[in-house]
Design brief:
Layout lengths: L5 E12 L4 E3 L4 E2 L3 E17 L7 E4 L2 E2 L3 H14 L5 E7 L9 H16 L6 H11 L3 H4 L4 E4 L12 E5 L7 E6 L9 H11 L3 H20 L3 H20 L10 H15 L4 E4 L6 E5 L4 H9 L6 E6 L5 E3 L1
Helix pairs in contact: 1-2, 1-3, 2-3, 6-7
The chain binds adenosine-5'-diphosphate, ligand DP6 and cobalt (II) ion (CO).
The site of cobalt (II) ion has 6 residues, from helix 2.
InterPro entries: GHMP_kinase_C_sf, Mev_decarb, Mev_diP_decarb, MVD-like_N, Mvd1_C, Ribosomal_Su5_D2-typ_SF, Ribsml_uS5_D2-typ_fold_subgr
Keywords: ATP-binding, Lipid biosynthesis, Lipid metabolism, Lyase, Nucleotide-binding
GO cellular component, one term: cytosol
Length: 325
């Protein structure tokens, strides 16, 4: 069969219990499990166009040539599985800032996995695609699925049980998300580098690893029983502990801007005033406020008016990664 042109879309995701650190860099195996929500309006669209004249994959992101190194290595795994050569023009777009702490690597590698599966006619299961996506970026394993998703740490040395699985569909608990964008720029320390430095040098890293299983159990339970206060508590604690471990690295990894902290303070004020909202922050300066649908408007308005907040993005829980016609 010919190698086909293929397209896919995947939503980015936000971890409520964070992944921060690896137990195997070559296989990209996380040190701990993690738990996330997949988003609808923050997504990556990727088209793979086979081109027999190419000796290596080419990459265009948001209309401009971009560094293809990471996706070439990723597509090599699919070429090996298919037993085929064949290179692509990879044409992709992100609907939100790239490399800025909004999980572009998650939606990117999930979309690439789904598109490559089709292009090579591999017919892999979502679980296998999650395992492959993980090798591109750990958080990408979760973006294969929609709604609430849990990523297992796994035990197998080859990483075959290190996959994500759906915990509950979006309809189970239709939470919404307001993203306060405080900088559109690419971060200076990538997620991979930030966690590597934290693992190697932070005295708080072992304490972080020790905390995660307990947080996962609390988050899972609070989602299944729709206990907003309990989820708020564990999600904020997970995000702050991740950043605490990174801040204590040498040199310290600082993802916050002044406006990041202002947003955290405002979210806590809003919650004290009776709105159901909590925050989380990933490897970047943006603040994600997770809230009930009826509270999204006041949360978005309150964050948008803070100095240093460039704009707010709004999202609901979204579906898993899909092929596009
Ligand atoms: P983020 O916080 O956005 O996930 P990371 O440092 O984890 O930041 O990952 C950013 C990297 O993800 C980029 O340098 C690039 O290699 C990859 N990436 C982002 N968007 C795409 C895309 N649409 N297609 C392929 N790779 C992408
Ligand atoms: C803070 O998945 O981007 O967003 O596996 O090295 O690509 P790599 O890292 P990545 O790290 C995500 C870190 C985080 C937390 C999370 O999404 O769980
Ligand atoms: Co990332």
């Amino acid at each position: 069969m010919d190698i086909q042109e293929a397209r896919a879309r995947a939503g980015s995701n936000i971890a409520l219990v964070k992944y921060w650190g690896k137990r195997d860099e070559a296989l990209n195996l996380p040190a701990t499990g993690s738990l996330s929500i997949t988003l609808d309006t923050l997504h990556t669209d990727t088209r793979l166009v086979p081109d027999p004249s190419l000796a290596a994959d080419q990459f265009e992101l948001n209309g401009r040539p971009a560094d293809p190194a990471r996706l070439r290595a990723f597509l090599d795994r699919f070429r090996a599985l298919a037993g085929r050569e064949g290179h692509f023009q990879v044409i992709s777009s992100n609907s939100f800032p790239t490399s800025a702490g909004l999980a572009s690597s998650a939606s990117a590698f999930a979309a690439l996995a789904v598109a490559a599966n089709r292009a090579f006619g591999l017919d892999l299961s979502p679980t296998r695609l999650s395992e492959l996506a993980r090798q591109g970026s750990g958080s990408a394993a979760r973006s294969i699925f929609g709604g609430f998703v849990e990523m297992a740490r796994g035990e197998a040395p080859d990483g075959s049980d290190c996959v994500a699985r759906p915990l509950a569909p979006a309809e189970h608990w239709p939470l919404e998300v307001v993203v306060a964008v405080t900088s559109e720029e690419a971060k200076s320390v990538s997620s991979s580098e930030g966690m590597r430095r934290t693992m190697r040098t932070s005295p708080y890293y072992p304490a972080w690893v020790e905390q995660v299983d307990r947080d996962l159990a609390l988050a899972r339970e609070s989602i299944l029983s729709r206990d907003f206060a309990a989820l708020a508590d564990v999600a904020e604690a997970s995000a702050l502990a991740m950043h605490a471990s990174a801040l204590a690295a040498r040199p310290g990894v600082i993802y916050f801007k002044p406006a990041t902290l202002a947003c955290l303070e405002r979210v806590r004020e809003l919650r004290a005033s009776g709105l159901d909202v909590f925050f989380t922050v990933d490897a970047g300066p943006q603040v994600k406020a997770i809230c009930r649908p009826e509270h999204r408007r006041p949360v978005a308005d309150a964050l948008a008016e803070l100095p240093g907040v460039h704009r707010v993005l709004e999202a609901r829980l979204g579906p898993g990664a899909v092929e596009l016609p």
